[in-house]
């Protein structure tokens, strides 16, 4: 008999800490992760989690395959709307002014299907500064990035946008019932496959702003969080900003200061 009465939950309780992840992060969206693990178990022709646990003990390389299943793909345009209004009205224009005449570099780490980096481009366009920034976006999953590059989205991904934003930045594809992002916005984002637990980007100039929302500070364990933060310090300019998810916080101290106000915004300090 399993401890929680749910073999999948027990399995996650065992494997997540082994791989440097937090159960608390995966608790709510565990369904999609368990579905992928079930699929892997079927591929291997095994009978459930107990047999898969034995297989992992016998075949150490399988841990890498298992880790490939541990991701969550929830995202949408202008997720946490208040943040995006502040970005267009204040944060992005100030950043561009401080960087002039160079372009300000912005990185979206864990960009899913592209909703986040395209939201950055739309917010920048709304404040008339799209040509003064460079946007890079990465995800460990190449399939998600291929989708991101098509710029096509279900109606539900746009639910936080106003009617004006939809019509200004998208066209509607009647045949597939999808919204397609305008070419100017699509071309303004450079996508790359990158596992941020393996390596961070190596930009020519330090980034001004890093988006790391609903990834490191939800799913990674504390050691992995601190490792990420110390890596980010190397590629972010002094006074540069990190934006995390609305339910996430950075560990206090360690050279990061919460920017005043209600936004999940942190500044790199000396
Ligand atoms: C929950 S989504 C968050 C998307 C977006 N940042 C947002 O807040 O809406 C997490 C994304 O992180 C990606 N991811 C997970 N582990 C990663 C890793 N080690 N390196 C890069 N991306 C990763 C997943 O593939 C997924 O697309």
Describe the structure.
It is a single chain. Helix 6 (81-99) crosses helix 7 (115-126). This protein has two domains: 7-68, no CATH class; 81-268, 3-Layer(aba) Sandwich (Rossmann fold), CATH 3.40.50. It has helices at residues 7-18, 23-27, 30-43, 49-58, 62-68, 81-99, 115-126, 142-150, 163-169, 183-187, 216-219, 222-235; strands at residues 104-109, 133-139, 152-153, 170-173, 178-181, 189-193, 207-211, 236-243, 256-258, 265-268. It is α/β, with parallel strands linked by helices and 270 residues long. The termini are far apart. The longest helix has 19 residues, at 81-99. The protein binds S-adenosylmethionine. S-adenosylmethionine binds next to helix 7.
**SS field, number of helical segments:** 12
Radius of gyration, whole Å = 20 Å
Overall pLDDT, averaged? 95
> Per the principal axes of the C-alpha atoms, what is the gross shape?
globular
What pattern of helices and strands is seen along the backbone? HHHHHHEHEHEHEEHEEHHEEE
Number of strands: 10
Q: CATH top level of the largest domain?
A: Alpha Beta
Q: How many structural domains?
A: 2
CATH architecture annotation name of the largest domain: 3-Layer(aba) Sandwich
Q: Give a quick account of the main beta sheet: strands, pairing sense, barrel closure.
A: 7 strands, mixed
Instruction: Estimate the strand proportion.
Output: 15-25%
**Which residues form runs of ≥5 with pLDDT under 50?**
none
Hetero ligands: S-adenosylmethionine
Secondary-structure-derived class: alpha/beta
What is the CATH third-level topology name of the largest domain? Rossmann fold
Q: CATH homologous superfamily name of the largest domain? A: Vaccinia Virus protein VP39
């Amino acid at each position: 008999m399993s401890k929680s009465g749910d073999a999948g939950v027990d399995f996650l309780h065992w494997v997540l800490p082994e791989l440097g992840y937090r159960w608390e992060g995966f608790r709510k969206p565990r369904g999609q992760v368990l579905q992928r693990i079930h699929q892997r178990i079927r591929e291997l022709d095994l009978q459930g989690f107990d047999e898969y646990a034995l297989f992992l003990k016998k075949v150490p390389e399988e841990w890498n395959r298992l880790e490939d299943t541990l991701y969550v793909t929830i995202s949408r345009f202008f997720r946490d709307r208040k943040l995006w209004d502040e970005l267009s009205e204040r944060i992005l224009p100030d950043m561009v002014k401080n960087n002039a005449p160079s372009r300000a570099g912005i990185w979206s780490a864990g960009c899913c299907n592209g909703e986040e980096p395209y939201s950055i481009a739309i917010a920048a366009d709304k404040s008339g500064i799209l040509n003064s920034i460079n946007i890079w976006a990465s995800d460990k999953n190449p399939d998600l990035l291929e989708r991101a590059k098509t710029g096509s989205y279900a109606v539900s991904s746009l639910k936080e946008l106003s009617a004006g934003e939809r019509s200004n930045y998208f066209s509607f594809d009647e045949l597939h019932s999808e919204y397609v992002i305008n070419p100017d916005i699509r071309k303004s984002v450079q996508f790359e496959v990158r596992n941020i637990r393996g390596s961070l980007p190596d930009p020519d100039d330090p980034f001004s702003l890093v988006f790391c929302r609903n990834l490191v500070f939800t799913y990674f364990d504390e050691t992995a969080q601190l490792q990420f933060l110390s890596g980010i310090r190397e590629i972010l300019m002094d006074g540069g900003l990190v934006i995390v998810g609305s339910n996430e916080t950075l560990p206090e101290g360690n050279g990061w200061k919460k920017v005043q106000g209600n936004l999940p915004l942190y500044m790199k300090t000396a």
